[in-house]
Here is the input.
Amino acid sequence: MYNLVDFSVVDISKSLEERDQIKQLLALSDLDLDPQVDTFIIARMDNKIVACAGLDDNIIKCVAIDPNYRGNQLNLTLLDNAIKYANEQGHFHLFLYTKPENIDFFKGCGFYPIVEINDLIVLMENTPVGIKQYCKQLSEQRKDGAKIGSVVMNANPFTKGHQHLLEYAANQCDWLHVFVVNENVSLFPFDVRLQLVKEGSKHLKNVTVHASSSYIISRATFPTYFLKDNDKIDSAYMGIDLLIFRNYIAPTLNITYRFVGTEPYSKVTNAYNTSMGYWLQDEKVSDYPVITLVEIQRIVEGQDIISASLVRKLLAAEQYEQVKRLVPETTWNYLAENLDSVKKLIRSKGN
Here is the structure.
């Protein structure tokens, strides 16, 4: 029967008919279409789409099978085709998010759980040793000390506020680990942000700046298509990200503190700071040691609380003297030397 199934790859941004069919198929599984996904591997029988799996770079999303065809070889063949296509695009380390009740199915397809938020979501990867190998590599950066701190930042771009946070944290710790998030919707590319953080903190002798990894989760790629409630979406995203940090990254580097700046403007970031108090410090949510959260006040320049979002607004308005007040010399030197390319980025992304 299933040798009659036709598997193919479609771009739903170019086919409204296939887009509508996939949305209908997803609805049968109580799923929505993820706005980040245009590429789908589909299975057709009798000109009808009976199964689909979406790809967002190295993340498999929107997996659905018509209820009349579940529980058979079609399940495995669909995932096999999705994995093969991802490999052809250069993605070999794959992730997927799913509901906890689907864990056994995806285990049968070669995926392994990393962390789970009960009743909401589980993050899985297509190797039993992926997170372990990452931690092994990370352990080479482990430093001795009674108080090991950490900061996770986007630095889009690196400001005097970021620099103040690192200076304060480094002064409080024997060693400080700084992780720069590879957020693919940032105005400044990851390699530039990483460079600016390194240059802006090189005067601190007890700091290691880490390039981001797949295990520091990007909000831009986090799925929302099967979590209907915004509060549940936020809780799941924050829980997944923070438990990976607490259960894997922190023990590997002996991190016992995490430093953050207060967030007076962004409700999302402020909620994330609040969530850290729960996911990092509550003994009930993890068997791993608690991580003490330290929140410090953001610094002010004139009447302005320094933030990367303010810097981006000033750049868009070409108020460069104002920008210069808010960023370290190292960041300003980069901006001044690359002003034409920065203007193009701002125009292209509307920031």
Q: What stands out?
A: The radius of gyration is 22 Å. The mean pLDDT is 90.
